[in-house]
Design brief:
alpha/beta, Rossmann fold, Immunoglobulin-like, 2 domains, 4-stranded antiparallel sheet
């Protein structure tokens, strides 16, 4: 649903923003795209965002367009999913703000959109990058209806393409690109992770599942084990147990991980925070 929180000059009080967020929550919105920002912290807005996330809403916002090293508000909040912009060459756009709270980037230069007159416009800014990420969040929520803010962030960042933005796009997280450039397909593959092949003998087990192309560099998976239905899950931490091939991940154990014959017990695959 469209919710107007700015006036005809593209400005608005923080109280309007908070009212818009509250309205979205009370009317059942799952994803909030907030393509706006200010320079100062606003407690009322921060409380509205915290409340939205507590109600299961995914909150996505823009980094800002000053080209500086300070993110706009509410992009500067740790709780927000904050999105910067890339240009036509997949580089960080010069106008896109950077900072430690930046989570990922998405295309934001010369983006096709409809103007108020119904004509096709091409415009630029992190405000156009943000709805791309929000749209992917909607796809993720379609396959995971109970998706939380933390889970959405994990899926987005683990699925993002790293080191595609030039020399400033360093391995892993950096303040100019966050965890990388949005990749909807990767994130959706992660959201639907399911073991589909199991090979098991007395002293050996191999699990396998479909995975995104960047799984080998991201290493997003955690395998957990329990010996019986009534026992707790135990993380298995040996990274050498994983093998990554194009489009598929394998995990092997000969009993050295679990300490027992792996013909008994239960395994599951989970996602871990982006690396």
């Amino acid at each position: 649903m469209p919710i107007k929180v700015l006036d005809d000059w593209n400005t608005g009080f923080y109280s309007w923003w908070a009212q818009g967020i509250d309205f979205a929550v009370s009317n059942g919105c799952k994803i909030i795209n907030f393509s706006g920002g200010g320079t100062a912290y606003g407690q009322t807005v921060a409380r509205a965002i915290t409340n939205a996330i507590a109600h299961g809403v995914i909150f996505v916002t823009a980094a800002g367009n000053e080209g500086g090293n300070v993110l706009g508000f509410p992009g500067s909040l740790d709780a927000s999913i904050t999105v910067g912009a890339t240009d036509r060459n997949d580089q960080r756009a010069e106008f896109s703000d950077s900072g430690p709270q930046l989570d990922l980037v998405a295309p934001g230069e010369d983006i096709a959109t409809l103007g108020l007159d119904g004509e096709l416009w091409f415009d630029t800014g992190t405000s156009f990058s943000t709805p791309m990420v929000a749209g992917v969040c909607a796809l993720l929520a379609a396959v995971r209806p109970n998706l939380t803010q933390a889970e959405a962030l994990q899926l987005l960042c683990s699925g993002a393409e790293d080191q595609v933005g030039g020399i400033t796009d360093t391995p892993g997280f950096d303040t100019s690109h966050g965890w990388g450039r949005l990749n909807a397909y990767h994130s959706l593959l992660l959201a639907t992770t399911q073991v589909d092949q199991v090979r098991r003998t007395y002293n050996h087990v191999e699990l396998s599942w479909v995975s995104p192309a960047n799984a080998g560099s991201r290493q997003p998976y955690q395998v957990e084990y329990k010996s019986s239905l009534g026992s707790g899950w135990v993380p298995l931490t040996n990274p050498s147990a994983f093998r990554y091939e194009a489009g598929r991940t394998y995990w092997n154990d000969d009993g050295s991980e679990t300490g027992i014959a792996t013909s008994t017990g239960y395994f599951r695959v989970k996602l871990r925070p982006p690396q």
